[in-house]
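Structure representation.

___
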Amino acid sequence: MSASFVYSKNALHMFQQNRYEFKRYTNWLFSVRNIRFTKTLIYVLLMLVLLLFNNKFIKYIVLLVTVLYTIYAIIQEEKKEYIKPLVLTARVKRQICVYSVLLFICVFLLVNKGVNYSLIAVISVYLPYLLIYLMAIITLPIENAVKKGFENSARAILNDYNHLIKVGITGSYGKTTTKNVVKDIIGEKYYTLITPASYNTPMGITRTIREHFKPIYEVFICEMGADHVGEISYLMDFVKPKYGIVTSIGPQHLNTFGNLDNIIKEKMQEIEMLPADGVGIINVDNEYINAYQIQNNCKVVRIGINNKEADLVAYDMKYSNTGTSFKVDIDGETVEFNTILLGEHNVMNILSGIALAKELGLSNNEIKAGVSNIGPVEHRLQIKNINGYTFIDNAFNSNPVGCKRSLDVLKLMPGKRIIVTPGLIDLGKEENEANYNFGAYMKERADFVILVGEKNSAYIHKGLEESEFDMNNVLVTKSVKEAFNYVYTHFSKEDTILLENDLPDAFLY
Protein backbone atom coordinates (compact mmCIF):
# COMPACT_ATOMS: atom_id res chain seq x y z
CA MET A 1 0.00 0.00 0.00
CA SER A 2 2.98 2.31 0.21
CA ALA A 3 2.63 2.71 -3.55
CA SER A 4 -0.76 4.32 -2.95
CA PHE A 5 0.77 6.97 -0.71
CA VAL A 6 3.48 7.83 -3.26
CA TYR A 7 1.02 8.13 -6.14
CA SER A 8 -1.65 9.75 -3.99
CA LYS A 9 0.71 12.61 -3.23
CA ASN A 10 1.56 12.96 -6.90
CA ALA A 11 -2.11 12.88 -7.94
CA LEU A 12 -3.12 15.52 -5.35
CA HIS A 13 -0.14 17.67 -6.35
CA MET A 14 -1.03 17.61 -10.03
CA PHE A 15 -4.71 18.22 -9.30
CA GLN A 16 -3.65 21.38 -7.46
CA GLN A 17 -1.35 22.49 -10.29
CA ASN A 18 -4.24 21.99 -12.71
CA ARG A 19 -6.35 24.42 -10.65
CA TYR A 20 -8.58 21.68 -9.21
CA GLU A 21 -10.31 21.36 -12.59
CA PHE A 22 -11.40 18.00 -14.03
CA LYS A 23 -10.67 18.92 -17.65
CA ARG A 24 -7.17 20.24 -16.97
CA TYR A 25 -6.35 17.29 -14.72
CA THR A 26 -7.62 14.80 -17.32
CA ASN A 27 -5.61 16.51 -20.06
CA TRP A 28 -2.52 16.25 -17.85
CA LEU A 29 -3.25 12.63 -16.97
CA PHE A 30 -3.35 11.48 -20.59
CA SER A 31 -0.87 13.97 -22.04
CA VAL A 32 2.00 12.61 -24.09
CA ARG A 33 4.23 14.64 -21.77
CA ASN A 34 3.14 12.59 -18.78
CA ILE A 35 5.77 9.89 -19.08
CA ARG A 36 5.45 8.88 -15.43
CA PHE A 37 1.75 8.12 -15.67
CA THR A 38 2.20 6.37 -19.02
CA LYS A 39 4.84 4.08 -17.52
CA THR A 40 2.56 3.39 -14.56
CA LEU A 41 -0.38 2.56 -16.81
CA ILE A 42 1.72 0.19 -18.95
CA TYR A 43 3.06 -1.49 -15.82
CA VAL A 44 -0.42 -1.98 -14.32
CA LEU A 45 -1.83 -3.40 -17.57
CA LEU A 46 1.12 -5.79 -17.91
CA MET A 47 0.71 -7.03 -14.32
CA LEU A 48 -3.04 -7.50 -14.80
CA VAL A 49 -2.41 -9.61 -17.90
CA LEU A 50 0.00 -11.82 -15.92
CA LEU A 51 -2.54 -12.24 -13.14
CA LEU A 52 -5.08 -13.57 -15.65
CA PHE A 53 -3.08 -16.81 -15.71
CA ASN A 54 -4.22 -17.36 -12.09
CA ASN A 55 -0.96 -19.11 -11.26
CA LYS A 56 0.23 -19.02 -7.64
CA PHE A 57 3.90 -18.64 -8.63
CA ILE A 58 3.05 -15.77 -11.02
CA LYS A 59 1.07 -14.06 -8.27
CA TYR A 60 4.11 -14.10 -6.00
CA ILE A 61 6.29 -12.73 -8.83
CA VAL A 62 3.77 -9.93 -9.47
CA LEU A 63 3.72 -9.07 -5.76
CA LEU A 64 7.52 -9.01 -5.61
CA VAL A 65 7.82 -6.89 -8.76
CA THR A 66 5.20 -4.48 -7.43
CA VAL A 67 7.14 -4.08 -4.18
CA LEU A 68 10.30 -3.34 -6.16
CA TYR A 69 8.37 -0.94 -8.40
CA THR A 70 7.07 0.83 -5.30
CA ILE A 71 10.58 1.17 -3.88
CA TYR A 72 11.70 2.60 -7.22
CA ALA A 73 8.75 5.06 -7.16
CA ILE A 74 9.64 6.18 -3.63
CA ILE A 75 13.28 6.76 -4.59
CA GLN A 76 12.24 8.72 -7.68
CA GLU A 77 9.84 10.82 -5.60
CA GLU A 78 12.57 11.62 -3.10
CA LYS A 79 14.94 12.68 -5.90
CA LYS A 80 12.32 14.78 -7.70
CA GLU A 81 12.84 18.54 -7.33
CA TYR A 82 9.48 20.13 -7.96
CA ILE A 83 9.33 23.62 -9.44
CA LYS A 84 6.10 24.23 -7.53
CA PRO A 85 5.73 21.90 -4.52
CA LEU A 86 2.35 20.81 -3.20
CA VAL A 87 0.98 23.63 -1.04
CA LEU A 88 -0.93 22.40 1.99
CA THR A 89 -3.73 24.95 1.86
CA ALA A 90 -6.90 24.53 3.89
CA ARG A 91 -8.54 23.23 0.73
CA VAL A 92 -5.87 20.58 0.19
CA LYS A 93 -6.11 19.49 3.83
CA ARG A 94 -9.84 18.96 3.41
CA GLN A 95 -9.18 17.02 0.23
CA ILE A 96 -6.58 14.83 1.96
CA CYS A 97 -9.08 13.93 4.69
CA VAL A 98 -11.79 12.91 2.22
CA TYR A 99 -9.30 11.18 -0.07
CA SER A 100 -7.82 9.14 2.81
CA VAL A 101 -11.28 7.90 3.82
CA LEU A 102 -12.03 6.92 0.20
CA LEU A 103 -8.72 5.08 -0.14
CA PHE A 104 -9.32 3.21 3.12
CA ILE A 105 -12.83 2.20 2.01
CA CYS A 106 -11.53 0.93 -1.33
CA VAL A 107 -8.79 -1.15 0.27
CA PHE A 108 -11.16 -2.45 2.96
CA LEU A 109 -13.69 -3.56 0.34
CA LEU A 110 -11.03 -5.29 -1.75
CA VAL A 111 -9.65 -7.16 1.24
CA ASN A 112 -13.14 -7.98 2.56
CA LYS A 113 -14.11 -9.44 -0.81
CA GLY A 114 -11.10 -11.74 -0.68
CA VAL A 115 -9.26 -10.13 -3.55
CA ASN A 116 -5.75 -11.53 -3.92
CA TYR A 117 -3.02 -9.34 -2.35
CA SER A 118 -1.06 -9.32 -5.59
CA LEU A 119 -4.03 -7.78 -7.40
CA ILE A 120 -4.59 -5.26 -4.58
CA ALA A 121 -0.92 -4.24 -4.78
CA VAL A 122 -1.17 -3.68 -8.53
CA ILE A 123 -4.45 -1.75 -8.25
CA SER A 124 -3.00 0.47 -5.51
CA VAL A 125 -0.45 1.81 -8.01
CA TYR A 126 -3.14 3.11 -10.38
CA LEU A 127 -6.11 3.74 -8.10
CA PRO A 128 -4.97 7.12 -6.62
CA TYR A 129 -5.20 8.90 -9.98
CA LEU A 130 -8.84 7.84 -10.37
CA LEU A 131 -9.87 8.48 -6.75
CA ILE A 132 -9.06 12.17 -7.31
CA TYR A 133 -12.25 12.48 -9.37
CA LEU A 134 -14.48 11.03 -6.65
CA MET A 135 -12.74 13.09 -3.97
CA ALA A 136 -13.25 16.28 -6.01
CA ILE A 137 -16.96 15.55 -6.55
CA ILE A 138 -17.51 14.98 -2.82
CA THR A 139 -15.59 18.10 -1.72
CA LEU A 140 -16.98 20.42 -4.41
CA PRO A 141 -20.10 21.52 -2.45
CA ILE A 142 -17.92 22.22 0.59
CA GLU A 143 -15.46 24.29 -1.44
CA ASN A 144 -18.27 26.22 -3.14
CA ALA A 145 -19.81 27.05 0.24
CA VAL A 146 -16.45 28.20 1.67
CA LYS A 147 -15.76 30.25 -1.44
CA LYS A 148 -19.20 31.88 -1.38
CA GLY A 149 -18.86 32.86 2.27
CA PHE A 150 -15.50 34.53 1.73
CA GLU A 151 -16.70 36.31 -1.42
CA ASN A 152 -19.76 37.71 0.33
CA SER A 153 -17.48 39.06 3.06
CA ALA A 154 -15.26 40.74 0.43
CA ARG A 155 -18.27 42.25 -1.36
CA ALA A 156 -19.45 43.72 1.94
CA ILE A 157 -16.04 45.34 2.49
CA LEU A 158 -16.11 46.93 -0.98
CA ASN A 159 -19.68 48.16 -0.50
CA ASP A 160 -18.66 49.97 2.69
CA TYR A 161 -16.36 52.29 0.69
CA ASN A 162 -18.51 54.09 -1.87
CA HIS A 163 -15.78 56.59 -2.76
CA LEU A 164 -13.16 53.95 -3.58
CA ILE A 165 -11.90 54.27 -7.18
CA LYS A 166 -11.96 50.78 -8.67
CA VAL A 167 -9.98 49.77 -11.77
CA GLY A 168 -10.24 46.44 -13.60
CA ILE A 169 -7.46 45.18 -15.84
CA THR A 170 -7.73 42.19 -18.17
CA GLY A 171 -6.24 40.85 -21.39
CA SER A 172 -4.64 37.72 -22.78
CA TYR A 173 -1.24 39.00 -21.70
CA GLY A 174 0.31 42.02 -20.04
CA LYS A 175 -2.19 42.21 -17.17
CA THR A 176 0.23 41.88 -14.26
CA THR A 177 2.85 44.21 -15.69
CA THR A 178 0.22 46.82 -16.56
CA LYS A 179 -1.27 46.55 -13.07
CA ASN A 180 2.11 47.29 -11.46
CA VAL A 181 2.90 50.04 -13.94
CA VAL A 182 -0.47 51.75 -13.33
CA LYS A 183 0.06 51.55 -9.57
CA ASP A 184 3.48 53.21 -9.78
CA ILE A 185 2.14 56.04 -11.96
CA ILE A 186 -1.05 56.95 -10.12
CA GLY A 187 0.74 56.35 -6.83
CA GLU A 188 2.11 59.88 -7.33
CA LYS A 189 -1.30 61.12 -6.19
CA TYR A 190 -3.33 58.25 -4.72
CA TYR A 191 -2.86 55.57 -2.07
CA THR A 192 -3.34 52.46 -4.17
CA LEU A 193 -3.97 48.77 -3.46
CA ILE A 194 -3.41 46.17 -6.16
CA THR A 195 -4.11 42.46 -6.25
CA PRO A 196 -0.64 40.99 -5.57
CA ALA A 197 1.33 38.73 -7.94
CA SER A 198 -1.19 36.98 -10.20
CA TYR A 199 -4.13 37.02 -7.82
CA ASN A 200 -6.69 37.40 -10.60
CA THR A 201 -9.31 34.78 -9.73
CA PRO A 202 -12.38 35.25 -7.51
CA MET A 203 -10.56 33.70 -4.54
CA GLY A 204 -7.37 35.66 -5.20
CA ILE A 205 -9.31 38.92 -5.35
CA THR A 206 -11.30 37.92 -2.28
CA ARG A 207 -8.13 37.25 -0.31
CA THR A 208 -6.69 40.60 -1.37
CA ILE A 209 -9.75 42.50 -0.15
CA ARG A 210 -10.12 40.55 3.11
CA GLU A 211 -6.44 40.49 4.05
CA HIS A 212 -4.98 43.70 2.65
CA PHE A 213 -7.68 46.33 2.33
CA LYS A 214 -7.46 49.35 4.67
CA PRO A 215 -9.52 52.58 4.75
CA ILE A 216 -6.43 54.59 3.75
CA TYR A 217 -6.61 53.23 0.18
CA GLU A 218 -8.18 55.50 -2.42
CA VAL A 219 -7.77 53.29 -5.48
CA PHE A 220 -8.18 49.52 -5.89
CA ILE A 221 -6.58 48.03 -9.02
CA CYS A 222 -7.89 44.56 -9.70
CA GLU A 223 -6.30 42.19 -12.19
CA MET A 224 -8.99 40.01 -13.75
CA GLY A 225 -7.98 36.70 -15.27
CA ALA A 226 -10.11 34.30 -17.26
CA ASP A 227 -9.64 31.00 -19.03
CA HIS A 228 -13.33 30.10 -19.31
CA VAL A 229 -16.32 31.92 -20.82
CA GLY A 230 -18.21 33.89 -18.17
CA GLU A 231 -15.34 34.53 -15.76
CA ILE A 232 -14.77 38.22 -16.63
CA SER A 233 -18.51 38.87 -16.33
CA TYR A 234 -18.45 37.26 -12.89
CA LEU A 235 -15.48 39.36 -11.74
CA MET A 236 -16.96 42.58 -13.13
CA ASP A 237 -20.15 41.93 -11.19
CA PHE A 238 -18.05 41.16 -8.11
CA VAL A 239 -15.78 44.24 -8.11
CA LYS A 240 -17.88 46.69 -10.17
CA PRO A 241 -15.00 48.91 -11.38
CA LYS A 242 -15.62 52.31 -12.93
CA TYR A 243 -12.43 52.13 -15.01
CA GLY A 244 -11.42 49.23 -17.22
CA ILE A 245 -8.23 48.44 -19.16
CA VAL A 246 -7.88 45.74 -21.83
CA THR A 247 -4.17 45.20 -22.51
CA SER A 248 -4.20 42.83 -25.48
CA ILE A 249 -6.03 39.83 -26.87
CA GLY A 250 -4.63 36.73 -28.52
CA PRO A 251 -4.66 32.91 -28.52
CA GLN A 252 -4.21 31.99 -24.87
CA HIS A 253 -5.97 29.21 -22.90
CA LEU A 254 -7.50 27.82 -26.07
CA ASN A 255 -7.88 24.43 -24.37
CA THR A 256 -10.55 25.91 -22.11
CA PHE A 257 -11.93 28.80 -24.19
CA GLY A 258 -12.38 26.66 -27.28
CA ASN A 259 -11.75 29.35 -29.88
CA LEU A 260 -10.43 32.87 -30.33
CA ASP A 261 -13.89 34.44 -30.74
CA ASN A 262 -14.78 33.34 -27.21
CA ILE A 263 -11.58 34.91 -25.90
CA ILE A 264 -12.23 38.24 -27.66
CA LYS A 265 -15.82 38.49 -26.45
CA GLU A 266 -14.89 37.47 -22.91
CA LYS A 267 -12.03 39.96 -22.52
CA MET A 268 -14.09 42.82 -23.96
CA GLN A 269 -16.69 42.27 -21.24
CA GLU A 270 -14.28 44.38 -19.19
CA ILE A 271 -15.40 47.42 -21.22
CA GLU A 272 -18.97 46.41 -22.01
CA MET A 273 -19.90 45.99 -18.34
CA LEU A 274 -18.57 49.38 -17.22
CA PRO A 275 -21.17 51.86 -15.92
CA ALA A 276 -22.42 54.68 -18.16
CA ASP A 277 -20.05 57.16 -16.48
CA GLY A 278 -17.15 54.70 -16.64
CA VAL A 279 -13.99 54.91 -18.75
CA GLY A 280 -12.52 52.10 -20.82
CA ILE A 281 -8.89 52.11 -22.00
CA ILE A 282 -8.08 49.83 -24.93
CA ASN A 283 -4.99 48.97 -26.95
CA VAL A 284 -5.96 49.59 -30.57
CA ASP A 285 -2.63 48.31 -31.88
CA ASN A 286 -4.13 44.91 -31.13
CA GLU A 287 -6.08 43.87 -34.23
CA TYR A 288 -8.74 41.97 -32.29
CA ILE A 289 -9.48 44.86 -29.93
CA ASN A 290 -9.42 47.44 -32.72
CA ALA A 291 -11.92 45.48 -34.82
CA TYR A 292 -14.32 44.80 -31.95
CA GLN A 293 -17.59 46.74 -31.86
CA ILE A 294 -18.02 47.71 -28.19
CA GLN A 295 -21.61 47.49 -26.94
CA ASN A 296 -21.39 50.30 -24.39
CA ASN A 297 -21.76 54.07 -24.60
CA CYS A 298 -19.23 54.83 -21.86
CA LYS A 299 -16.12 56.86 -22.65
CA VAL A 300 -13.39 54.82 -24.39
CA VAL A 301 -9.78 55.99 -24.59
CA ARG A 302 -7.81 54.39 -27.43
CA ILE A 303 -4.05 54.03 -26.97
CA GLY A 304 -1.48 52.92 -29.51
CA ILE A 305 1.98 53.06 -30.98
CA ASN A 306 1.48 51.95 -34.55
CA ASN A 307 -2.16 53.07 -34.81
CA LYS A 308 -1.81 56.83 -35.27
CA GLU A 309 -5.58 57.34 -34.97
CA ALA A 310 -5.45 56.47 -31.28
CA ASP A 311 -6.29 59.11 -28.67
CA LEU A 312 -2.88 58.70 -27.02
CA VAL A 313 0.06 57.72 -29.21
CA ALA A 314 3.62 56.94 -28.12
CA TYR A 315 6.32 57.88 -30.62
CA ASP A 316 10.03 58.63 -31.02
CA MET A 317 10.90 55.52 -29.02
CA LYS A 318 14.50 54.73 -28.21
CA TYR A 319 15.52 51.35 -26.79
CA SER A 320 18.69 50.23 -25.08
CA ASN A 321 19.77 47.44 -22.77
CA THR A 322 19.20 49.74 -19.79
CA GLY A 323 15.73 51.12 -20.56
CA THR A 324 13.37 52.93 -22.91
CA SER A 325 12.44 56.52 -23.73
CA PHE A 326 9.46 57.79 -25.72
CA LYS A 327 7.18 60.80 -26.22
CA VAL A 328 3.42 61.31 -25.89
CA ASP A 329 1.35 64.39 -26.73
CA ILE A 330 -0.94 65.14 -23.77
CA ASP A 331 -3.35 68.09 -23.90
CA GLY A 332 -1.21 69.94 -26.46
CA GLU A 333 2.07 69.35 -24.59
CA THR A 334 4.78 66.95 -25.77
CA VAL A 335 5.96 64.97 -22.76
CA GLU A 336 9.09 62.82 -22.87
CA PHE A 337 9.13 59.73 -20.67
CA ASN A 338 11.98 57.55 -19.46
CA THR A 339 11.69 54.10 -17.89
CA ILE A 340 13.93 51.21 -16.89
CA LEU A 341 11.42 48.80 -18.45
CA LEU A 342 12.52 47.11 -21.67
CA GLY A 343 10.74 46.70 -24.98
CA GLU A 344 7.92 48.19 -27.04
CA HIS A 345 5.21 46.20 -25.26
CA ASN A 346 6.13 47.93 -21.99
CA VAL A 347 5.61 51.28 -23.68
CA MET A 348 2.06 50.13 -24.38
CA ASN A 349 1.65 49.05 -20.75
CA ILE A 350 2.84 52.48 -19.62
CA LEU A 351 0.43 54.18 -22.05
CA SER A 352 -2.42 52.46 -20.16
CA GLY A 353 -1.15 54.03 -16.96
CA ILE A 354 -0.77 57.44 -18.59
CA ALA A 355 -4.32 57.29 -19.94
CA LEU A 356 -5.76 56.33 -16.55
CA ALA A 357 -3.67 58.94 -14.73
CA LYS A 358 -4.97 61.60 -17.09
CA GLU A 359 -8.56 60.53 -16.34
CA LEU A 360 -7.87 60.63 -12.60
CA GLY A 361 -6.58 64.21 -12.76
CA LEU A 362 -2.81 63.79 -12.46
CA SER A 363 -0.71 66.59 -13.96
CA ASN A 364 1.79 65.90 -16.73
CA ASN A 365 4.64 66.38 -14.27
CA GLU A 366 3.10 63.88 -11.86
CA ILE A 367 2.62 61.38 -14.67
CA LYS A 368 6.20 61.88 -15.86
CA ALA A 369 7.53 61.36 -12.35
CA GLY A 370 5.40 58.27 -11.93
CA VAL A 371 6.74 56.74 -15.15
CA SER A 372 10.35 57.40 -14.16
CA ASN A 373 9.69 55.69 -10.81
CA ILE A 374 8.26 52.50 -12.28
CA GLY A 375 10.10 49.53 -10.79
CA PRO A 376 10.81 46.16 -12.37
CA VAL A 377 8.01 43.61 -12.32
CA GLU A 378 8.90 40.19 -10.91
CA HIS A 379 9.56 37.55 -13.62
CA ARG A 380 8.57 39.86 -16.47
CA LEU A 381 11.61 40.99 -18.46
CA GLN A 382 13.29 41.70 -15.15
CA ILE A 383 17.06 42.19 -15.30
CA LYS A 384 18.71 40.14 -12.55
CA ASN A 385 22.24 39.44 -11.42
CA ILE A 386 22.50 35.81 -10.34
CA ASN A 387 25.93 34.54 -9.26
CA GLY A 388 27.48 37.37 -11.27
CA TYR A 389 25.61 36.45 -14.47
CA THR A 390 23.12 38.77 -16.21
CA PHE A 391 19.68 37.22 -16.61
CA ILE A 392 16.53 38.58 -18.21
CA ASP A 393 13.85 36.91 -16.13
CA ASN A 394 10.69 36.52 -18.19
CA ALA A 395 9.77 33.24 -16.57
CA PHE A 396 6.08 33.84 -15.91
CA ASN A 397 3.45 32.52 -18.29
CA SER A 398 4.92 33.19 -21.72
CA ASN A 399 2.71 33.58 -24.81
CA PRO A 400 3.22 33.76 -28.60
CA VAL A 401 3.44 37.56 -28.67
CA GLY A 402 5.43 38.00 -25.45
CA CYS A 403 8.10 35.44 -26.35
CA LYS A 404 8.91 37.30 -29.56
CA ARG A 405 9.11 40.59 -27.70
CA SER A 406 11.50 38.96 -25.24
CA LEU A 407 13.73 37.84 -28.09
CA ASP A 408 13.71 41.38 -29.50
CA VAL A 409 14.94 42.62 -26.13
CA LEU A 410 17.58 39.89 -25.99
CA LYS A 411 18.86 41.04 -29.37
CA LEU A 412 19.81 44.41 -27.80
CA MET A 413 22.04 42.81 -25.19
CA PRO A 414 25.85 42.68 -25.25
CA GLY A 415 27.98 39.52 -25.33
CA LYS A 416 26.62 36.13 -26.25
CA ARG A 417 22.85 35.86 -26.03
CA ILE A 418 21.42 32.67 -24.55
CA ILE A 419 17.78 31.65 -24.15
CA VAL A 420 16.57 29.00 -21.70
CA THR A 421 12.98 27.90 -22.31
CA PRO A 422 10.62 24.92 -22.07
CA GLY A 423 8.35 26.43 -24.71
CA LEU A 424 4.70 27.52 -24.78
CA ILE A 425 1.68 25.69 -23.39
CA ASP A 426 -2.12 25.82 -23.12
CA LEU A 427 -2.64 26.90 -26.73
CA GLY A 428 -4.77 23.97 -27.85
CA LYS A 429 -4.41 23.06 -31.51
CA GLU A 430 -2.21 26.12 -32.12
CA GLU A 431 0.44 25.08 -29.60
CA ASN A 432 2.71 23.17 -31.97
CA GLU A 433 2.64 25.92 -34.59
CA ALA A 434 3.31 28.60 -31.94
CA ASN A 435 6.33 26.70 -30.64
CA TYR A 436 7.59 26.16 -34.18
CA ASN A 437 7.36 29.91 -34.88
CA PHE A 438 9.01 30.64 -31.55
CA GLY A 439 11.98 28.48 -32.54
CA ALA A 440 12.23 30.03 -36.00
CA TYR A 441 12.16 33.55 -34.50
CA MET A 442 15.26 32.81 -32.39
CA LYS A 443 17.57 33.06 -35.38
CA GLU A 444 19.70 36.26 -35.27
CA ARG A 445 18.29 37.04 -31.82
CA ALA A 446 19.90 34.29 -29.77
CA ASP A 447 23.36 32.76 -30.11
CA PHE A 448 22.68 29.67 -28.03
CA VAL A 449 19.42 27.90 -27.18
CA ILE A 450 18.78 25.64 -24.19
CA LEU A 451 15.47 23.77 -24.36
CA VAL A 452 14.07 22.29 -21.15
CA GLY A 453 12.20 19.02 -21.70
CA GLU A 454 12.45 17.02 -24.90
CA LYS A 455 8.76 16.41 -25.59
CA ASN A 456 7.36 19.88 -24.87
CA SER A 457 10.13 21.62 -26.83
CA ALA A 458 10.11 19.34 -29.90
CA TYR A 459 8.46 21.90 -32.20
CA ILE A 460 10.82 24.66 -31.10
CA HIS A 461 13.64 22.34 -32.09
CA LYS A 462 12.00 21.82 -35.47
CA GLY A 463 11.58 25.59 -35.97
CA LEU A 464 15.25 26.14 -35.17
CA GLU A 465 16.33 23.48 -37.65
CA GLU A 466 14.19 24.73 -40.50
CA SER A 467 15.25 28.36 -39.95
CA GLU A 468 18.83 27.13 -40.44
CA PHE A 469 19.88 28.02 -36.89
CA ASP A 470 23.27 26.52 -36.02
CA MET A 471 22.11 23.31 -34.29
CA ASN A 472 25.53 22.89 -32.69
CA ASN A 473 24.36 25.75 -30.47
CA VAL A 474 21.20 24.00 -29.29
CA LEU A 475 21.00 21.89 -26.14
CA VAL A 476 18.05 19.93 -24.73
CA THR A 477 18.06 19.36 -20.95
CA LYS A 478 15.75 17.47 -18.61
CA SER A 479 15.39 20.22 -16.03
CA VAL A 480 15.93 23.92 -15.38
CA LYS A 481 18.62 22.97 -12.84
CA GLU A 482 20.55 21.12 -15.53
CA ALA A 483 20.17 24.13 -17.85
CA PHE A 484 21.55 26.49 -15.18
CA ASN A 485 24.52 24.20 -14.54
CA TYR A 486 25.33 24.31 -18.25
CA VAL A 487 25.08 28.11 -18.31
CA TYR A 488 27.46 28.48 -15.37
CA THR A 489 30.06 26.16 -16.89
CA HIS A 490 29.95 27.24 -20.55
CA PHE A 491 29.26 30.98 -20.64
CA SER A 492 30.91 34.09 -19.24
CA LYS A 493 29.58 36.83 -16.99
CA GLU A 494 29.64 39.23 -19.95
CA ASP A 495 26.87 37.22 -21.64
CA THR A 496 23.09 37.59 -21.23
CA ILE A 497 20.68 34.75 -20.47
CA LEU A 498 16.94 35.05 -21.18
CA LEU A 499 14.70 32.84 -19.03
CA GLU A 500 11.53 32.51 -21.09
CA ASN A 501 8.63 30.76 -19.34
CA ASP A 502 8.82 28.44 -16.37
CA LEU A 503 6.36 25.59 -16.78
CA PRO A 504 4.84 23.99 -13.70
CA ASP A 505 5.66 20.34 -13.05
CA ALA A 506 2.35 19.25 -14.59
CA PHE A 507 3.74 20.18 -18.02
CA LEU A 508 7.24 18.77 -17.66
CA TYR A 509 6.66 15.05 -17.15
In short: The radius of gyration is 26 Å. The CA atoms of residues 149 and 318 lie 50 Å apart. The chain has 19 helices and 15 strands.
